[in-house]
Write a structure and sequence with these properties.
Its cofactor is Mg(2+). InterPro entries: 8ODP, NUDIX_hydrolase-like_dom_sf, NUDIX_hydrolase_CS, NUDIX_hydrolase_dom. It catalyses: N(6)-methyl-dATP + H2O = N(6)-methyl-dAMP + diphosphate + H(+); 2-oxo-ATP + H2O = 2-oxo-AMP + diphosphate + H(+); N(6)-methyl-ATP + H2O = N(6)-methyl-AMP + diphosphate + H(+); O(6)-methyl-dGTP + H2O = O(6)-methyl-dGMP + diphosphate + H(+). It is an enzyme of class 3 (hydrolase). With 173 residues, the chain is an alpha+beta fold. The protein is 18% helix and 42% strand. Strands 1, 2, 3, 4, 5, 6, 7, 8 and 9 form a nine-stranded mixed β-sheet that branches. A hairpin with a 5-residue loop joins strand 5 and strand 6. The longest helix has 13 residues. The structure holds 8-OXO-2'-deoxyguanosine-5'-triphosphate.
Length: 173
């Protein structure tokens, strides 16, 4: 009997950024519970019913680290094909022009890092493959194939704004 995999679960992940060049800093959160517990990541979560992806990104940023972004920019998408659980599609945002104070939430303990000292050893295994592309300011589509233990295949494609926008309405790999 063949079973059909459910459609991918949709998430956002948001990276607050300050400064530029060698002074560029990124706010990461150490996840305190759930999936990715104990790992550094951007802030984010599941798309709620009736919400746009931009709404989701603003809400998750505020809920998880207390910040509001006047400049929230959709910069990429991650298609994660997983053998051991549902597939994930994660829409990636950078957040600049930040308002408010950074606060620790139930979910995340935030900390600023300079971009030359990112804690890749304590991040999701694929982070080092695509964070440099995001931090360079490129727009991208990344595809990863995971087994339980490994990322067995990946590719990162640089795209233009039109292609990225198209993927918002047709989020398929
Ligand atoms: N880089 C990377 N990010 C991931 C992976 N898996 C995964 O969920 N994420 C991101 C997407 C989301 O931003 C975040 C997980 O969201 P979450 O489970 O905390 O969702 P949520 O905030 O809605 O959860 P909750 O309030 O219901 O606990 O981590 C992964 O394998 N790699």
């Amino acid at each position: 009997m063949t079973t059909t995999k459910p459609p991918p679960r949709l998430y956002t992940v948001i990276f607050p950024i300050e400064g530029s060049g060698s002074g560029q800093r990124v706010l990461l959160g150490l996840k305190k519970r759930g999936m990715g517990k104990g790992l550094w990541n951007g802030f984010g979560g599941k798309l709620e019913p009736g919400e746009t992806l931009d709404d989701c990104a603003h809400r998750e940023l505020q809920e998880e680290c207390g910040l509001e972004a006047k400049d929230l920019c959709y910069v990429g998408v991650l298609f994660m094909i997983c053998s051991h659980h549902d597939d994930l599609t994660i829409f990636v945002y950078t957040a600049r022009d930040l308002v408010g104070s950074v606060v620790e939430s139930d979910e995340m303990a935030p900390q600023w890092f300079t971009t030359d000292k990112l804690p890749y050893d304590g991040c999701h295994r694929e982070a080092r493959l695509w964070w440099p592309t995001m931090l360079n300011g490129s727009l991208f589509v990344a595809r990863f194939v995971f087994t339980q233990d490994d990322c067995i295949q990946h590719n990162i494609e640089h795209v233009d704004r039109a292609r990225l926008t198209q993927l918002l309405s047709q989020p398929g790999p």
